[in-house]
Amino acid sequence: MLKTSTAPSTVSLPDISFFADVFRDSAVPTLIMGPDSKVLFWNGAMERLFGWSAEEALGLPLPLVPPERWEEHLQLRRRTLAGKGFSRRRIVRRDREGRPIEVSLSTWPIRGADGHVIAFVGIYADVQTEELRLQRSLAEKQLEEIERLYATAPIGLCFLDADLRFVRVNERLAQIDGLAAEAHVGRRLAEVVPEVAASLEGIYRELLATGVPLKERELRASTPALPGVPRVWQVSAYPLKKS
Q1: Which of 33, 56, 102, 147 is least enclosed by beta carbons within 10 angstroms?
Q2: CA dihedral in degrees (39, 41, 47, 48; nearest 10)?
Q3: What pLDDT digit, counting tens, does each position of 82-102 carry?
């Protein structure tokens, strides 16, 4: 059964009722438009994005098209009514207050029983929100990759704060130091690796003073994992800077 978000029109209601019911409660801004550009269906997400309620939009020409973009709208409408929808077309529309909104628009035609296009569905997405979501998704994937690399790296890795206290170490460094990874956190170098602390502190303080990465510095020392057994280590250090 159709609700108030669908407008009476010359289009047969049963022909669009299925699509209206599918998108009525969707979080995706969706409308259905007739061949004359009048709005036949307008869901709640459209109101949240553009500001017009269903009662204000239904049965009227599409309100979100700025006058200077009406010809563009007509071209897009003609393409869809010809049975050629499109996906994620970037366009500029306006909200109820007249402010421009960059959106992506995807459409597909609705055909009647005789096969002719009688209306079309339009799905909008706020480009800025979409891009932020994409950036967040990409950042999360990159973080996951870094986490996997950190956990499985065959070399010892750690983060130290400006006071040279351990913030985090990976399992390989924990094995080298002979101390569980979580037991490093909050401790100074001298508390964890006293045999090598002085040399390491010199490297890290130089890094803090200059902000220049230090690569492949060699030092000779034993660690608690193998006390009394000096070995040659290569140490590289990189600053983490605020953007």
Answers
A1: 147
A2: -130
A3: 888 888 889 999 999 999 999
